[in-house]
Amino acid sequence: MKKETEETKKTAPQGESKAKKPSQDKQKITELSEKLAKEHDDYLRLMAEFETFRRRSAEDRLNLVSSAAADTIKGLLPVLDDCERAMEMLEKSGDEAAKEGTALIYNKLMAYLKTRGLAVIEAKGADFDTDYHEAVTQFPAPTEDLKGKVIDVVQTGYTLSGKVLRYAKVVVGA
Length: 174
Known about the structure:
Elements: H1 2-92, H2 96-115, E1 118-121, E2 133-139, E3 150-155, E4 157-160, E5 163-166, E6 168-173
Parallel strand pairs: 2-6
Antiparallel strand pairs: 1-4, 3-6, 4-5
């Protein structure tokens, strides 16, 4: 009997360890699967953050290029104004070569700027709109239908890709 109890004692701890081993394995598998899920979640979040960073960087670069283009075009607007004034003055003179040369320069410059997104704000005869026009003065309207409309344009306004680059300075009928 002593032999049996010794054998039982020897086998009992082994049996207990075998019984504990599957539950420990399940616990370890659960821990590892939770850790894997956490690492996968962290990876997905990191990838999403990187994609957001990449998209924002691309947008910032585009905005920088477009604002640089807007500044350059804005600097050319006084040249366009001078060309327009020169063409008005040459209309009064008889120098056809000067008229043609100035018109050619103006048209080439405008054609190039239009390819870059520049558009003239058509104001004369239109309803006064504070989104596009800046009223320099009000003038008594010669007829009733010209009240609240643009009678004259003092300085041409421009938009660049749909955004106002320079408001049109106008005279409004009162």
